[in-house]
Design a protein that fits this description.
Order of helices and strands: HEEHEH
Strand order of the largest sheet: 1-2-3
Largest sheet: 3 strands, antiparallel
Helix content: 25-40%
Radius of gyration: 14 Å
Structural class: alpha+beta
Number of strands: 3
Oligomer: single chain
């Protein structure tokens, strides 16, 4: 059976935590940030958990060889 190709953009935007939870980055980090509060800008740097089961299934299909973070 042939290997499945990894969707590269998905592999760059998602990663797994040490406990195996799928993490994502927030969008909107680069444009029109001046008007946002400092607290909101700090929140953009954090990784957030993907909770929707349909989204988790889609990411696993797009990036089947996605590694856990160290």
């Amino acid at each position: 059976m042939p290997k499945i190709k990894t969707h590269k953009v998905t592999a760059k935007r998602f990663r797994y935590s040490g406990r195996g939870k799928l993490l994502r980055t927030k969008g909107g980090k680069s444009h029109l940030r001046r008007r946002r509060s400092k607290r909101v800008k700090r929140m953009f740097d954090e990784m957030h958990e993907v909770r929707a089961k349909g989204d988790i299934k889609r990411v696993r299909r797009l990036a089947p060889y996605l590694k856990k973070s160290r």
